[in-house]
Design goal:
The chain is of the alpha/beta class. Helix content is 34%, strand content 22%. The chain contains eleven helices and 14 strands. The strands form three sheets. It has a six-stranded mixed beta sheet, with helices on one face. Helix 2 links the parallel strand 5 and strand 6. The protein starts with a helix and ends with a helix.
Length: 379
């Protein structure tokens, strides 16, 4: 009986070891045979009007080493025949939330002192890092990658000061592999808090000024304390204020979301008063304030989340019957809508004519709509 028991123990031990060995084998990541690739027979679009017909792209260790015809292909290269396909540089998204997880909204408890709530409750978390919220498995990453976007400037969700943005690659096995540049900008919005200060846009602007000036004073005091501590009280560390230090030193810009023309004007007024480097993102109605943007020397990313363009209807045979007042009013309204929609799509042209450099952001836009949107902008 004891021998049978020991035999069963031995069999179970062998099975356990076999299963563990299989599991260990599944976790082994095989290194690629080669990190050198040669894409041949490809039409390479280097820039508008600059094209290499049926050329070769040589890539080694993830870096393009050579582009052109008659490229010498190394012996260890994996040759990929493109069969006269087209190659373009990837799009760079100026601002979006691609791959960024939106925190679950918790029940908003009533604050004991709504006039002076804790910073995080009022949407003031400039110390937060978007890297903590990036999900490499997010389906949106694949969607935008398939649409031709390879790099995105992403920011966390939140209130008036959600946190630090980052430049990420839309691909990679993990968050660290995706990040090209962390702390790319201090991201901010004109988004009021609910049922507490700052609960108005004017309040948000006042709070931003207060935090910026307070951070400047605190930073100066820390410098004085570091040079001579005698008789001085030790400065209390404040992560909210410390997040402004790179902005004050002009080592980091403030990326301000400003969709409407009034938002752009308000943000530029803030920048004029405080003197920080400004990047305007998600701009939808900037055509009337181009000169102000130019004077502010602000970088600008125009939104690709534009209104749907109405399809042209076939004109019916004109009738001698006079139009009713309702029909006349409807036609006039449709015409005004069309004129205003054309302003959205003509915004890029207006910036170009004014000599103001711009790029695009896709926040809230859908990947499937981008080709049609770009065609309408070009037209």
């Amino acid at each position: 009986m004891r021998k049978q028991y020991r035999l069963w123990q031995l069999m179970l031990l062998v099975c356990w070891c076999w299963a563990t060995n299989l599991q260990a084998q599944d976790e082994v990541v095989l290194t690629p045979v080669t990190k050198t690739y040669a894409i041949t027979n490809v039409n390479i679009n280097q820039a508008p009007g600059k094209k290499i017909e049926m050329g070769t792209i040589l890539i080694k260790d993830g870096v393009i080493k050579a582009v052109g015809k008659n490229i010498t292909i190394p012996a260890d290269a994996w040759v990929i025949k493109a069969d006269s396909m087209q190659a373009y540089a990837g799009f760079i998204d100026g601002f979006s939330r691609t791959g960024v997880t939106k925190p679950k909204e918790e029940g908003r408890e009533r604050q004991k002192d709504p006039g002076n709530p804790p910073p995080d409750k009022a949407g003031i978390t400039p110390q937060n890092d978007v890297r903590a919220f990036i999900n490499p498995a997010d389906k949106a990453i694949e969607e935008w990658r398939n649409a031709g976007f390879t790099i995105a400037h992403v920011a966390p969700y939140g209130g008036m000061l959600p946190g630090q943005s980052a430049l990420i690659l839309l691909g990679g096995s993990g968050t660290d592999n995706m990040v090209l540049q962390s702390n790319a900008a201090l991201y901010s919005e004109l988004t009021p808090a609910e049922r507490m200060y700052p609960n108005t846009i004017i309040g948000v602007m006042a709070k931003f000024r207060e935090l910026y000036l307070q951070a400047s004073l605190t930073k100066n005091y820390e410098a004085v304390y570091a040079s001579n501590r005698n008789g001085l009280e030790r400065p209390q560390p404040d992560r909210v204020l410390q997040a402004f230090y790179p902005v004050i030193d002009k080592k980091q810009a403030v990326a301000f979301k400003a969709e409407k023309v009034l938002d752009v004007q308000r943000v530029i007024n803030l920048q004029k008063d405080l003197g920080f480097n400004l990047t305007l993102v998600d701009v939808k109605e900037g055509w009337d304030v181009i000169n102000k943007i130019k004077v502010a020397n602000a970088r600008v990313f125009l939104s690709l989340d534009l209104p749907e363009k109405k399809k042209e209807e076939k004109k019916e045979n004109k009738s001698d019957k006079p139009k009713t007042a309702t029909e006349v009013e409807k036609e006039a309204l449709d015409k005004r809508k069309e004129e205003f929609t054309n302003k959205y799509f003509g915004q890029a042209s207006a910036f170009q004519k004014a000599g103001v450099a711009f790029a695009f952001s896709t926040n809230n836009a859908k990947a499937k709509d981008i080709p049609a949107t770009l065609r309408n902008i070009i037209a």
